[in-house]
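Researcher: Quick one. two chains, 904 residues in total.
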Amino acid sequence: MPTTKILLDESEIPTHWYNVISDLPNPPAPYLTPDGKPLTPDMMTSIFAPALVEQEMSTQRWIPIPEEVREIYRLWRPSPLYRAHRFEAALGTPAKIYYKYEGVSPAGSHKPNSAVAQAYYNKIAGIKRLATETGAGQWGSALALAGQMFGLSVRVYMVKVSYQQKPFRRSMMETWGAEVIPSPSQLTQAGRQALAKDPDCPGSLGMAISEAVEEAASRPDTNYTLGSVLNHVLLHQTIIGQETRKQLEQVGDYPDVIFAPCGGGSNVGGMMFPFLADKAAGKAIRLVPVEPTSCPTLTRGHYAYDFGDSAGLTPLMLMFTLGHDFLPPSIHAGGLRYHGDSALVSQLCHDGILEPIAVPQLATFQAGILFAKTEGILPAPESNHAICAAMEEALQCKQTGEPKTILFTLSGHGHFDLASYDKYLAGELSDLDYPAETLQQSLQNLPNITRS
Amino acid sequence: MPTTKILLDESEIPTHWYNVISDLPNPPAPYLTPDGKPLTPDMMTSIFAPALVEQEMSTQRWIPIPEEVREIYRLWRPSPLYRAHRFEAALGTPAKIYYKYEGVSPAGSHKPNSAVAQAYYNKIAGIKRLATETGAGQWGSALALAGQMFGLSVRVYMVKVSYQQKPFRRSMMETWGAEVIPSPSQLTQAGRQALAKDPDCPGSLGMAISEAVEEAASRPDTNYTLGSVLNHVLLHQTIIGQETRKQLEQVGDYPDVIFAPCGGGSNVGGMMFPFLADKAAGKAIRLVPVEPTSCPTLTRGHYAYDFGDSAGLTPLMLMFTLGHDFLPPSIHAGGLRYHGDSALVSQLCHDGILEPIAVPQLATFQAGILFAKTEGILPAPESNHAICAAMEEALQCKQTGEPKTILFTLSGHGHFDLASYDKYLAGELSDLDYPAETLQQSLQNLPNITRS
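Model:
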């Protein structure tokens, strides 16, 4: 019987993170302050641990993973690489489909890969508390877990509507000892202002970011952490792609195409960056970030300097963006509802090295349910985007007869997302798409800054 | 760094189930009909697949696992054995603590080990539909998954109060294609009678069993399945203990004591039966089923013939029981709320080979939360019972200085049980214990049958 799970021993957890900046064909554009000047490391260390700021700006190819971080990784890593025999059979495809399953972490997604590293570096910098935001709850859970592992207090500003609709993500964070605050709250100036305007304000990721940043900036014992977008977050995630390469080598295979869901870019960077050198060396490999048509940052956004949050408090980054005041509709893949994207992922898309696509919501659930019925694992709605793209590729192979090797990241399980499955099964979900004019509107408000 | 996860390759999934009946010091007592006559295989095949009835009564020591079943097991098995380094450190114990983690199955518990086997044997018997009941939802989820894997329709009668309180377990079953009916329902005579008496009846496991059995008995295309208690269910679970033995050998260790949560006995049988021969051969190993003080079947029940369900529709089994009309209070470890226990587990307790204990609810949550904070995994409330017992043993070792080897079954994750954690953290849970008179009451209604 052919292998189903390709496992690595925990001694094979990568010893270094891979820094793609060292291999980019073009140097990355600097982050800018709102008045257009390059951001200095000093400005970042007021809310980030020094080691993380160093990683954010590093050009060193391989950055060693501290033993203390690898020790925590051992609780669930290396994660398994699966050959999707039963999914392939259901599709009747000649393609081979592999998926790297990151849902085995205690928090249920790939997010702890960076949360553990961030908690560690803050701990050794003498920081006692971490503040962060969470939308769907995956990053908040990951940081709650990681903070607990290193004895740090964690406060999570959770978008109020999620706080109310997803009580179990909140309970999970509280069980790991974190404090969860519905945002907007009375604890920050940003929150109080929002509540003064509208006491029933449901909150947004942008608002929660503002509250967490404000708290970190105003308390010397507290730092801020972010679960995606930034270079150091994508750096930490590269253990995913490194492990996957080893696992595929073990069965003598190599992907023709890789799919990963894309919101802020941590999945894409984590899986794809370790394959970029091969592509640069002429290997025929397609690297495809998959985003929702309802938030089509990479496929329909502008490549321009923009803020990372909706209120305009963060530095400016050169990235694909739909405009920082673009409000994505409430599709159920909460992790993919972001107006912008990682600067590194954006640049690689701009340079034609990554080839993003967008898929509509209903197709992602259809694919996810077929996957659950054949492979057993119930995927997160975010992961369904990658499954959907992999399925379409496999069905094309069926038509052409090509036995391609398809790889995708199954970034998490859907145990806390069953309300979305319910709605899909009840026929209450729909696809969302935008006429060009709608997107044009939010794109008009981009900051008037061009790359120097 | 010492190993954290002890893994086996999927080629090492056991090839046989271990049938403890072949090694019992005393032969098991026969199942009886309500009038006291031994149950014949014919009576069982009206609702069970013939191969399962054969296994129920078999005295063969090793029963081969069909390749089709092992193929599905490969989706998550062998499950990992963990060394609980961080939990040990938090307790400051000289003991070594290992746990076998069964929450890696797609349904999140050990239940699919038997569900897959039961679905397979029904499939090859030409059965098209399966009917079953579920309380907390773990067995229903497992059967929904297993039915889907073999193309069988599954109908799950879910205790109405659980159906309403645990909508996500229901969604999970529906995503895998099962039909979930709140019980009591209008679909069966038993259900209609209950609703006629009380239209707002919240249901009970006993009622749901009656509905599923009635449906299976009245439809030739439909069979009934059960997730615990019966010999063949415990048989299928013995892969847990077999894998664990191998994993411990790999690190050169052997347990001084094993703990497993005990409701109907499938965890206990699964983990402990494969260690019984060693004990019989004189090995000093303690085998300890752990039950809640609020449903103290093994520690305070009678060893007597009793019905398996509350309505008295099932055969009579010689077992420890609190009386078939004992209504356990709504503690949150739903899987441990059963008035009786597996006949095999009961007999081994009666013979002094298994040494059951009972633990109170608050202590189980306290232990489970310390475990989650150190090992990361958020355990099911049922599993917390084993964690609690392991923790007490480890703390005793701290006092005596003994470096014992402690092993327990972490039977599932708690992703669908966070409402219970919420209540615990809010101080809304309490311990439950019974004055002797209360237990005496339900024990008065035992059927007047003694072993022939």
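The two ends of chain B are 58 Å apart (CA to CA).
Researcher: Thanks, that's what I needed.
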